[in-house]
Amino acid sequence: DKMEILSVQNQYPERFSIISNTTKTKDWSTSLQTTHSTTKTDVNTTINSNTNTTTTSVNNNSPNYLADEELLYCDKFELAAINDLASRLLEELRAAKSRNLTCTEVSIPCDLTTRIASEIIRVSEREPCGIRGCTLYIEFEEEPQNSRRIGTLKVDHEMVSTFELYLTLRQDKRGWASLLPQFMKNLSRSITISPEFNLTKHKLYSPNESS
């Protein structure tokens, strides 16, 4: 699988350059209404009407998680929004790595932030302010039922949040590093992020308020 390495050393972040520079195309003036294709992706959604909470689990078994031909169905605005949000997610993960993860290297699937961004925009479609009303909390689960918050991303700082998303990332236990004894894992100080993630949405308003 293709991976991206976030190899900014914690102690001296200013000495290492950012891996990729992307052109910002931010324009959140319109709510996105296009439905995204989820071919090749298993998506399970659980809705709790009592707490205004929706949990989506995305599980991918194919190495090509978001094929180019699927992206062709997105209009230009939607694709620009996905790319911009994916870029901001990657920047936040870089910052989170330097702030909160005691490791020298974090490896993530190259398309992970794009898939997450696409899912975020999809679950934002019916919100009163669209994606602009989203505040995203990023959590990292090192062990089952043991997660901690490593980052926060408010999509539009000028907009009052109408809903919150909780993104849970997990360590990938399937690689060769999982076979190492614990003391070797500590020495390696390297983390590989799983392609699977959970996204939980919590609305900050009652459903009848949005009508």
TrEMBL record:
Classification via InterPro entries: RTP801-like, RTP801-like_C_sf
Family: Belongs to the DDIT4 family.
Gene Ontology BP annotations: apoptotic process; head involution; negative regulation of growth; negative regulation of signal transduction; regulation of TOR signaling; response to oxidative stress
Protein name: Protein scylla
Function: Inhibits cell growth by regulating the Tor pathway upstream of the Tsc1-Tsc2 complex and downstream of Akt1. Acts as a cell death activator during head development.
Locations listed in the record: Cytoplasm
Keyword Cytoplasm: yes
Organism of provenance: Lucilia cuprina
Main location: cytoplasm
Keywords: Apoptosis, Cytoplasm, Developmental protein
Gene Ontology CC terms: cytoplasm
